[in-house]
Amino acid sequence: MDQPINRLDEMFATCGQLHPDDLPHIAQQGYRSIICNRPDHEGGSEQPTSESLRRHAEALGLNFVYLPVIPSTLHQGQAQQLHTLLSTLPPPILAFCRTGNRSTQLYRMTCENEAASSQYDIVIMGGGSAGIGVAASLLRRSPELKIAVVEPSDHHYYQPAWTLVGGGAYEAADTVRPMASVIPEGVTWIQASVSAFAPERQSVLLSNGKQLGYQQLIVCPGLQLAWERIEGLEDTLGQHGVTSNYRYDLAPYTWKLVQSLKRGKALFTQPGMPIKCAGAPQKAMYLSCDHWLRHGVLNEIQVEFNLAGAALFGVPDFVPPLMAYVEKYQASLAFQSNLVAVDGPGKTAWFEVTSSDGSINRHAKPFDLLHVVPPQQAPDVIRRSSLADAAGWLEVDPATLQHPRHSNIFALGDVCGTSNAKTAAAARKQIVVVAENLLALREGLPLPSRYDGYGSCPLTVEKGKVILAEFGYGGKLLPTFPLDPKVARKSAWLLKATVLPRFYWNGMLKGREWLTRCG
């Protein structure tokens, strides 16, 4: 292909005249739709007709649309036609004319029209704990701000309680509310997802074909659970003894399995880091074992915890007290053992085990109960964007949470490419940092707030007791209360099971910033 492609954003590009021989290369590059902006017969016999190009394109599975544009007569009606195509054609889209100039001009006209009608001070991608919390905090500081939250889901979940649901200590119904009920008053909720970023034009493209313009963008869509990366898992989740506390509808099934198991083998898994709440995989094991111990059946159950990594917990200070519970529950630890396949009806799980010499072997293990924590990654739209770091997470300065190449973009929550624990507690402190720094940026002032990597993992080691692990960057202990954080306490259980859920709904999501200062 002789024509260079001018990529205007992640979903739209332009180029000069295409010929039938170019189309296979276009398809191989991942484009799904082609728009022809050059009128037929404009350049004489050497120019292929739009109908000829259409036949070749459709034979390759490409969508093809003829939208002829004469440079001297470019008008708003054509921009509106292109806008309609952008909302209906599958992306990415490649438009062409003789040189690519008029296609580029038409697209920019379309974007300017859309941005003018959908312009916000701040656009927030994601309506989870981070997105709702930062929207509320911004409005408490500056009520005049025009803010939009882009979130496709109808419901909002308090996910930290799903471990308790799986342990029989919390009701699943109490962890969910309608999304409309948590959107802060004064914030526009746009029920769609972001399909692409256009930071150079200060806009995002939405799944409904619309475009939102912004002065500042906050990216906090959470992370993506990659169930599909474990062979056979999706076909058996929620049946055959296979469950996970990482899904709202499955956490009650975990508790059902725990109650019914009287003997046999229980496998618990933990994939490679980073994951959402790194302590949750073993919390499921501890609460299950506590139930079996209290009901006198633990001696009849073989418990095994398979970790893809080489350490029980990432902060060494907490390993000894956790090991004491592992020993109490007579659980076996299988390090560098990563779940790769599941046969639910056959009650067998396969693990890739890395030995001391670096070799990897596959081991089959039977089970009666299998609690799976899926591999986790940044959302697809983040990983394929120019905003991502080398690992696919949203690139930010770890202290200011500002994007290093686009100063008007901030991020918080699980999507950040920072080394802190991915927990709601981390988002709670990040909210203040982003709110204060973003507002300072709007005023042309230095960014005043710094995030110290704080995260909290209330480790439910038994029903009624929690080791409240609080730490920051580098594993530095950052306890909120003047107590030894390595000791399991009833007070920490009360905090986890009663205080924090109430504060979440009535405090964090309302912009109330209790104990949120870093450092």
From TrEMBL:
It comes from the Bacteria. It comes from Pseudomonas asuensis. Gene3D superfamilies: FAD/NAD(P)-binding domain, Protein tyrosine phosphatase superfamily. Transmembrane segments: none annotated. It holds the Pfam family Pyr_redox_2. This is TIGR01244 family phosphatase. InterPro entries: BLH_phosphatase-like, FAD/NAD-bd_sf, FAD/NAD-binding_dom, Prot-tyrosine_phosphatase-like, Sulphide_quinone_reductase. Residues 8-109 form the Beta-lactamase hydrolase-like protein phosphatase-like domain. Residues 120-238 form the FAD/NAD(P)-binding domain.
